[in-house]
Every structure is written in structure tokens, then in C-alpha cells.
Amino acid sequence: MSNLIFNYLVYMVYFLGMGLVSSGIVLMPFNIMRYSTILVIGLILFISGTMFNEVVINKNKLSAIEVTKLIIVSLSLAIGIGMISGGISHFKENPNYVSYLIPIGIIVSSISFTVKNNYKLNKQNKIKLCVALIILALAIHITLSFFASSMLGNGGDIFNNMNNMHK
């Protein structure tokens, strides 16, 4: 029973951190101090969950270099995925910002995932992966930019509804 509770708490911290990272990244332009704080708390939670998962649950013995690599790659993975998920959730709030956020998030998270999971790619496959990611990111950016330019008004539902509540 204690194993169940511990594993649940580790995963709750892990995914709660991811949610906070996602919110912090995408909403930061609206309130830098508030959402930077949320982003930092999310990153701390995500790294804590990652470390507990790798070291305690999976019982991996990591050297100082491996711990440092795990932290850096996990942070970049969380930020990349946060850029994608936050951008999808809040496209309407800041479409121009999100048109950059999602494609960059795809590149950052894909590379981080590859490194974190020790995929060994030869030079040719690395080049193919990089070219494919750049083409995908450009296509998504162009598509999102088109939708952003066709949207009328500033801000999305969340911020319009908040303004209407204060009238």
C-alpha cells in the first residue's frame, strides 16, 4: 500500500509540474512575474518527479554527470512539451506568440526526448531528423501564422471573460 501511495505522489508531482510549466510558458507575456514563478515551480516539481522516478522507483544508480544530464534534458523536455501543450490550450489568447511557441516546442522536445532516451543515431539519421523537424516546424509556424493573422481582436476567451466580469 505504501508503494502505491509513493508512486502516485511521484507521478502527481511529475505531471503537476508539467501542467504548471505549460501554463507558465504560454501565459508569461500577460504577467511576467506571476507566470515566471509558476513556470519555475513547475520545473522544480517536474525535475523532482523525474529524479524520484529514475532513482527511487527505477532504482537507477546515476553518476553526478548522469544526474546533471538528466536534469538538463528533462528541463528542456518539459519546456518543449510545455510550449506545445500550453500553445494548443491558449492559441486564442496570443496567437502570434503561439505561432512560434509550438514549432520551437516540437524541435526542443524531440531533440530532448532523443537524448534523454539515449537513441543512437548515425550522422545520416541525425541530419534527416533535423531536416524533418525544421520542415515540420516551418509548416506549423506558417499555418499558425495564417490563422493568427486572420483572427480579429486581441486576446482570447479567458481574458475577454475576465474583462467582462469586472465591468
Structure characteristics:
single chain, 167 residues, 6 helices
The number of helices is 6
Q: How many strand segments?
A: 0
What is the SS-derived class? mainly alpha
- Which stretches are poorly predicted, pLDDT < 50 over at least 5 residues? none
Number of domains: 1
Order of helices and strands: HHHHHH
Helix content: over 70%
- N-C termini distance: 51 Å
| Largest sheet geometry | none
Report the average pLDDT across residues.
Answer: 89
Percentage beta strand: under 5%
Q: Roughly how many Å is the radius of gyration?
A: 18 Å
Structure description:
There is one protein chain. This protein is an all-alpha fold. The protein has one domain. 82% of the residues lie in helices and 0% in strands. It is flat and about 55 Å long. The termini are far apart. The mean pLDDT is 89.
Give the gist of this structure.
Helix content is 82%, strand content 0%. It contains 6 helices and no strands. The longest helix is centred in the C-terminal third of the chain and has 28 residues, at 123-150.
